[in-house]
Amino acid sequence: MARIEIPAGSAPCEIAAVPANGTLRRIVEFDRVSKIYLPGTRKEFTSIRNVTFHVEDKPDVGEFIGMLGPSGCGKSTVLRLIAGLAPHFPATTGTVLVGGLPVEGPGPDRGFVFQDYANFPNLSVLENVAFGLECAQVPEKERLERAWEWLGKVGLDAKNDADKFPYQLSGGMNQRVAIARTLILGPRIILMDEPFGALDPGTRQNMQDLLVALWKELEATVFFVTHDVGEAVFLADRLYIFSPSPGTIFKQMAITPPDRKSVEMQAVPAFQESVREVRHLLDQAGRSSPTDSSPA
Ligand code: ADP
Ligand code: MG
């Protein structure tokens, strides 16, 4: 059941204690990261300010980070700094480390799933999913076999759908293709920017269940941006709540990961209470001044 863990004696919604294990490697680390566009000009604009957090590389588990905050607070900026994607990358000040090393640009260790699918319109479903393997110089036969297998993993019917083109698919099917196209490459870090934002509620819940199943198999670290508080509480085992622009992390909190399907979870009173509590924190974050943010 998803519920907020509040360690005895601590303020509500503080992050639950991380096990004292000094040997865990940090898979992603932000240290006082800010992004300022056109610095020193009249158009100078700070999009994120002093973002500090780290995620540990827990063996055989991976962590699912949900990111919530008002539009324009810098959630996409944080994802794109991890991915090494311009113009958000590079940061203006501070340090962004992935696997202990400074990010120098995009890499196969990080996969990105966008809201608008970004499938190649002129490639079939199977070719779309196999595409990245060609760049990785996997032989053609193996590429197509692995892509076929991934169609099944994301709930598509390979026999029916492999030869279709993106324009012949629904939004949910297109997003399944995009997810397969990214995950087939085995990224250690999966960056998802409002991936289900364009889907109808039923399809969205099915996609959430799919993601939980895939994530358990992949054991990767996921950063997942959403505006849907219920979705974040359902999926995440840790939440970062951002304050408005220039964004910084207002609160971090631990959440119990899902143990049943999304549609069933919505009916559980403790889950609904968690959602209310997170909404309240988001309201607080929205009214906060820059000095209110807790150190991450
Ligand atoms: P979010 O994903 O939380 O909605 P973004 O990370 O996309 O926010 O953007 C954070 C802020 O940075 C926004 O105010 C946005 O307008 C601004 N921004 C993003 N890209 C640029 C850019 N290339 N130049 C100037 N401002 C930008
Ligand atoms: Mg965004």
Morphology:
globular
- Profile the largest sheet: 6 strands, mixed
CATH topology of the largest domain: Rossmann fold
Report the count of strand segments. 10
Give structural notes.
The protein has helices at 75-83, 125-135, 140-153, 158-161, 171-183, 201-218, 229-235, 262-265, 269-287, and strands at 26-37, 45-56, 64-68, 93-98, 101-102, 110-113, 189-193, 221-225, 238-242, 249-254. A hairpin with a 7-residue loop joins strand 1 and strand 2. With 296 residues, the protein is of the alpha/beta class. The protein has 9 helices and 10 strands. The chain is globular. The strands form 2 sheets. It has a 6-stranded mixed beta sheet, with helices on both faces. Helix 2 crosses helix 3 (140-153). The protein has 2 domains: 63-91 and 103-109 and 187-296, 3-Layer(aba) Sandwich (Rossmann fold); 118-186, no CATH class. Adenosine-5'-diphosphate binds next to strand 2 and helix 1.
Concise overview:
The protein is an alpha/beta fold and 296 residues long. The protein has 9 helices and 10 strands. The strands form 2 sheets. It has a 6-stranded mixed sheet, with helices on both faces. Strands 2-1-4-5 form a 4-stranded antiparallel sheet, covered by helices on one side.
Show the helix and strand layout.
Blueprint: E1 26-37, E2 45-56, E3 64-68, H1 75-83, E4 93-98, E5 101-102, E6 110-113, H2 125-135, H3 140-153, H4 158-161, H5 171-183, E7 189-193, H6 201-218, E8 221-225, H7 229-235, E9 238-242, E10 249-254, H8 262-265, H9 269-287
Parallel strand pairs: 3-8, 3-9, 6-7, 7-8
Antiparallel strand pairs: 1-2, 1-4, 4-5, 9-10
Helix pairs in contact: 2-3, 2-5, 3-5, 7-9
Bound molecules: adenosine-5'-diphosphate and magnesium ion (MG).
